[in-house]
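The record is kept unedited without comment:

——
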Amino acid sequence: MTTIAPLTSTDHAEWLGLWHGYLAFYEASIADEVTESTFARLVAGDELHGAIARDAAGRAVGLVHWLAHPATWTTTTYTYLEDLFVDPATRGGGVGRALIEHVRTWAESRGSHKVYWLTHEANTTARALYDRVATGTGFVHYEITLGR
């Protein structure tokens, strides 16, 4: 059985292992100070929100991060599911679906208009799940990285 709970400061070491797995999957690197700031903001839960999934033995097997933001096409908010990662050893067991459902329930309870997310087009395993639990929009993602 999978349980999902909001991130707390005591989850740091297990979250960090999952976070590093997530970054490695996307072949990304983030400065340590950004990682630590992200974790602190997730635990605070003021703007960013996070949850951790645990298996029946209590081992951390997945994470999800999200935020709500104002939108111009609704009088309420949209909820953006920013990060979702499941330990490769437990994929296919319903953890990803449970994490998405956790965010959907959170968003619905706060009156958000929709939950949405992005993934890489080559992420076929995750996309198979996403196609079962959500509707593809056909939109293409663009971005401009700003110097800092």
Remarks:
- The mean pLDDT is 95.
- The first helix runs from residue 12 to 25.
- The first strand starts at residue 3 and ends at 6.
- The helical segments are 12-25, 32-44, 95-109, 124-133.
